[in-house]
Amino acid sequence: MMIYGLNTCGVCQKARKALEADGKSVNFRDVRADPLSEAEMAELIAEFGDRLVDRKTNDYRGLNDWLKNSEAEAQISAQPKVMARPVIRDRDMLYLGWDEAVQKALLSA
Predict the structure, then answer these.
(1) Please, what sign has the CA dihedral across residues 70, 71, 76, 82?
(2) Domain boundaries, the chain
(3) pTM > 0.90
(4) Cα separation of 107 and 86, whole Å?
(5) CA-to-CA distance for 55 and 76, rounded, in angstroms?
(6) Dihedral angle at the C-alpha atoms of 35, 102, 20, 33, nearest 10 degrees?
(7) Please, what sign has the CA dihedral across residues 11, 13, 14, 15?
(8) How many CA atoms lie within 13 A of 34 on its CB side?
(9) How far is CA 64 from CA 68, 79, 100, in A?
(10) Domain covering 2-106 assigned CATH 3.40.30.10 in the classification
(11) Tens of pLDDT along the chain (109 residues)?
């Protein structure tokens, strides 16, 4: 299982701890230190579309107008912190966020 996020993201750390406590083998990738490849980005955009960008953050509001009107891929490439997170890969499935539905899908009952 792979979590894509930021080391400083509290929700990412909460998800990681819960998954590890549930006995899952979890790898964590900080997308700021190790950016997504073009192929990885394309896969995530295909799965989540514009939902992959968190438009409520100060980082998003800090983007210039050109970037705000650009595709999600350009926004995340320019400022990885605008990526909604965590993104969790469990085999062939991708999940966005750490809400109740994602927890139910990934944690043992």
Answers:
(1) positive
(2) 2-106
(3) yes
(4) 15
(5) 11
(6) 10
(7) positive
(8) 8
(9) 6, 11, 34
(10) yes
(11) 999 999 999 999 999 999 999 999 999 999 999 999 999 999 999 999 999 999 999 999 999 999 999 999 999 999 999 999 999 999 999 999 999 999 999 998 6
